[in-house]
Each structure stands twice: as C-alpha cells, then as structure tokens.
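PROTEIN DATA CARD
Card holder: ATP synthase mitochondrial F1 complex assembly factor 2
Chain length: 273
Origin: Glossina austeni
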Amino acid sequence: MNACRKLILSHWRNNLNRPETLFTRSYAAPPKRFYKKTSVLFNDGKYEVTLDHRKLKTPSGKLFAIKSEPLAIAVATEFDHQREYIERAKMHLSALCFTAIDNPYNQTKTDLVNYLINYVATDTVLFQYDNEKDLHELQCNEWDPIIKWFNERYETNLKKTMDITPPQISEEDKSNISKYLMSHEEDVLHGFVFAVDTLKSVILAFATIDQRLHVEKAVTLARLEEEYQSKFWGRVEWSHDLNQQESQARLAAAVLFVHLNRSEYFVKEKILI
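Structure generated from the sequence above:
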C-alpha cells in the first residue's frame, strides 16, 4: 500500500515540472472537408446547395432550401472557400440560414420582434457620459447624428441618458419600430437580431441595414468608448484587430442576409398567359 502511494506521489511530483501535462486541454478537431465541388440547383421552387453529389442539410437534418438564389450562391461560396478543414465559426451566412431554417429555439415572428424592441432600452449609443469631456464630445459628434436620423426615419423620439438609468422608451416608439419589423418575413428578422447582437445597438444595426452607415463605420461607432480608452491604456493589436475584423465579418453577413432575403431576390414565378 505504501509502495503504491509512493508511486502515485512520485508521478505527481514529476508532473509538477511538466505543466503541459496538467493544463493541456483537448478540443474537438474541426471536420475535414469531404467534398471537392459545390454547386447550386433549383428544385421545387427553391434553391439548394450541393457538396459534390450530396445535398446540403442543416444541423438538425433538414434540407437546405431557400427562395433567394444570390443567398444560395453566397452559402455555396462559403463552403467552397473552406480548405482542409471546415471552419464553421467563420461561415456566418451559412449559420444564419441554418438558424432561420431550423429555428432551434422555436421563436415566432412576435418573439423576434419583441426581442429587438426590448433591446432598444439597452442600446449602446443611448448611454453617454459627461464625466470625461473628450469622450462626451466624441459621443455627441459621432452618435447624436445617428440617433437623430433614426428618430426621423422611424418616427420615434428616442433620447439618450447621461447615467446608468435606462432611457425611457414610449409605447408609441415601440409601436412604430414594431410595425416596421413586422413588415418583414421571419427569416429576415434573424438577420436583424444577428446585426443587433453584433453591435449591441438597434440604432446602429438599422442604420447599417438601411445603408446609412458602412459596415466598418458602424463597428467603429459601436466600439467608440473602447477605442477612446485604448489611447490611454494601450492597444493589444492582435486582440483588438481580431475582434474588430470578426465584428465586421458578422455584421456584413447580417446585412447581406437581410437584403438577399427580401422578396426582390426571391424566385419569380412565371405567369402563363
């Protein structure tokens, strides 16, 4: 028994000098690319994506079939750009399509709209601070014009707050925003949610989707305070740059998803006279 304990203690002590044996984590390897060619085909009024001769399916096993040909081509392109391994985390358009088709949380159109409406009270650009003069001036110069545009565009009266107290959103404001969102198909709303979650702002997301802001500018505005503070505390280039590029990629995918999911990109049925 003592010999066994000594053996265990000896093994444990030896490993103390080898931290890699204590702290190494194992992660599931990404799936290897198993196909050579991607293509898009039209079937039964919708567009499908094929990987070689296999039809693409969603994570829940449903057939990938959408009404927008450009969106199907974009998804096929994402799969075509994968190299040895399939990096799902970088395939934002595919992920959005899968979410819209599978609807894993069983969200209704009303659920999605309510989520976006409730997000307005936590919108990044509505929370400003006057305890730092330079930062406050920057927020006023960069954020206030977008708030003004949003109020004019959507007939709202959103006002910023200067402390941690959430801004008051009137029922009329909620109603006007809700009417606009309810005018979209459920699939499109998934794109709105993805954009809002990326920017932490309904106002900036709507401005980007409405092409009032470029994607790069919208991400910069969403990170305004962080960029301001980095001037004083320094910038970890690889980390900050990676986060910014990832946010731009996510937002660009959301905007493209919304636009390509609108009816003008759907299959047009031929009318026989």
